[in-house]
Amino acid sequence: MSPQNEPPTPAQVAHMYRDQPTFSCSNCAAVIALQDELISKAFSGRDGRGYLMHSAVNVKLGKREDRPLLTGVHTVADVFCVGCSDRVGWYYHKASDHSQKYKEGKYLLEREKLIKDNAWKIDE
Ligand SMILES: [Zn+2]
To answer: Which of 13, 41, 67, 122 is the most buried (most CB within 10 A)?
Structure first.
């Protein structure tokens, strides 16, 4: 990938990731994350299970705020899909508890907002 000032469009992201398994938005099918970027499935989202991810694409961040979560107060921002503006999870800016610092700079994506897409390769 080349350095860029403008974030890629959903169509460009789909093209870049066309050969890789991804998670897509359940509402508009924009690619949200590579399955390779998954850290853990054992997280809680707001309404159900959540996935902790190293990175996400086709998303924009909402307002930064302090939020009490199960594991203490975290400074987070809601994460929205750029395709449909649906809220798909949140981003961890900061964790107050030392044991939770590993989450900083990571994304928590709601499982029910994601569709798992496998990029099947038939001929190699
Ligand atoms: Zn979407």
So the answer is: 13
